[in-house]
Amino acid sequence: MAEFLIKNGFVFDPVLGIKGDVADVAIKDGKIVETSALRSPKVIDATGKTVMAGGVDIHAHVAGPKVNIGRNFRPEDKLFNCTAGHGIERMQGGFSVPTTIRTGYNYAHMGYTTVMEAAMPPLYARHTHEEMRDTPILDQGAYPVFGNNWFVLEYLKNHEIENTAAYIAWLLRATKGYAVKVVNPGGTEAWGWGLNCENVHDPVPYFDITPAQIIKGLIEANEYLGLPHSMHMHANNLGTPGNYTTTLDSFKLSEGIKPNSKFGRAQVMHHTHVQFHSYGGEGFNFESKAPEIMDYVNTHDNITIDLGCVTLDETTTMTADGPFEHHLTELNHLKWANADVELETGSGVVPFVYSANNKANAIQWCIGLELGLLAKDPMRVFLTTDHPNAGPFIRYPRIMKWLMSQEARDQQFDAFKHKDKVIEATNLAGMDRELSLYEIAQMTRAGPAKALGLSHMYGGLAPGLDGDVAVYDFNPNEPYAPDDIEKAFLNAKHLFKSGVQVISDHEIASNGNKRTLWVNARANENPQVMRDIKEKFLRYYTVTLNNYEVTGHYLRNPHVIEVDATQ
């Protein structure tokens, strides 16, 4: 592999504690190395430019059945957004739900190299992996959903943590999954009865178990196994005014559980897209409760969160939270798709338009940014849009602009139709904090990598880490307008992925050597769990076990994280 020396850039790297110093970065054999290890490198002049590690997205919906439903469901999303590509680029299309090809290219143009699919129905794991395999450049993994799974509900009802852990280990191996994902715990199963779980103590029909028991039990099983990522949760009551109390109740369920520190994380819960879970008030008179949420996050080191920022775009919402999507289509009366996935989960898809003329949407925009600006530890608070739910991932540079510039926020406030009412219901107008590039690197690189248990591979520029390096046309030491931030971080000058230059002078130069990340979790042999699996497949599933498991040819360059809980 070629050697590269990226010279004289302004380097921002939380792993090494570099805060904009002019420094060189060396790449050899796919890894970051000391500059002295190079013999005859290709030199990239980064003078006057910003250099960071490749971006890591901890939560996005980019592959699998609901994403593909979204593509088929919304041909208008492709209108005027299809290109034939040029050079080595392949044909691509879509805006809020881009094709797999555009997904890889757009992330790469933003300087991202690793993206995690946030909700994989186990029954459709093969489909999910096929789409990830077809996505160029990016390393990817997928989170199987567990919070409404019949096996999990039955084991946790009976307080059988070891059985739950054994089942999780089996399912991660069977689906080649990466982490334990929980979506509206118990609520999606209740939706099969036309119901929902509206708080953590609301019982799930038939199973006689509460979301609190599901959340706490899955955290305990996750730590029993010692998985690289903490339990990854989308809590009950998403999008409902007054739901911040449910969020705080969910946070508190993580207290007192000791993290398994094998992968260097100190957290036992990751709560995703917290913007959607930080609402006070009632009905249409809702208000921000971001300060209350962040007071808890800032004083409890055992959790991480991501923002779920609203970007004020037309987009396509999609989630395994089936009852919420039905609620959404009742609000906006747009088309709706709904699915039930046998013993495992469900989903819904609804288009949505976030408008600056809508007071509620403007309040949502404020809340997402407030969460980021109130964070005292950016290594535990990550930048996301819950793509595509609050907006497409290509708006990450725009969110960076808003977080880094009070002027940019003020400009957006001036565009709101109900500016005064929005200011009254939120806190953002009174906040003058502007995040630094170093803090952005924490939120988009080092922090997510550490939370995923992947800090030995990604998130920084220390020797031994993967050769994932982004170079941006942005000089932080010269005067700049807020829009310069968005422009630069939307279009990386150069990008290296595992030592391969995939962007050169803003153009795609290679389709990369992407990898699929998955966790090979082993637990103590458990005959009861295997009997339960075989019995339920015979009685209820529409496929056999042999047609359920994901085999190696579905994966692209699989990278296996070994976890052994039998030791």
Description of the molecule:
It is a single chain. The chain has 567 residues and is an alpha/beta fold. The chain is built from 17 helices and 24 strands. The longest helix is centred in the N-terminal third of the chain and has 15 residues, at 161-175. The model has no long low-confidence stretch (mean pLDDT 96).
What features would you highlight for this structure?
five-stranded parallel beta sheet, 567 residues, single chain, nine-stranded mixed beta sheet, 17 helices, alpha/beta
What does the secondary structure layout of this molecule look like, with pairings?
Layout: E1 4-13, E2 18-28, E3 31-33, E4 42-45, E5 50-53, E6 55-60, H1 65-73, H2 100-109, E7 112-120, H3 125-134, E8 139-144, H4 150-157, H5 161-175, E9 181-183, H6 187-191, H7 211-225, E10 231-234, H8 244-252, E11 269-271, E12 279-282, E13 285-288, H9 290-299, E14 303-306, E15 314-319, H10 322-332, E16 337-341, E17 345-353, H11 359-373, E18 381-382, H12 396-404, H13 406-414, H14 419-425, H15 437-451, E19 469-472, H16 482-489, E20 494-497, E21 500-504, E22 507-508, E23 516-522, H17 527-539, E24 558-564
Parallel strand pairs: 1-4, 1-5, 6-7, 7-8, 9-10, 10-11, 11-14, 14-18, 23-24
Antiparallel strand pairs: 1-2, 2-3, 5-19, 12-13, 15-17, 16-17, 19-20, 20-21, 21-22
Question: Summarize this, please?
Answer:
The protein is an alpha/beta fold and 567 residues long. The chain has 17 helices and 24 strands. The strands form six sheets. Strands 1, 2, 3, 4, 5, 19, 20, 21 and 22 form a nine-stranded mixed β-sheet that branches. Strands 9-10-11-14-18 form a five-stranded parallel β-sheet, sandwiched between helices. Strands 6-7-8 form a three-stranded parallel β-sheet.
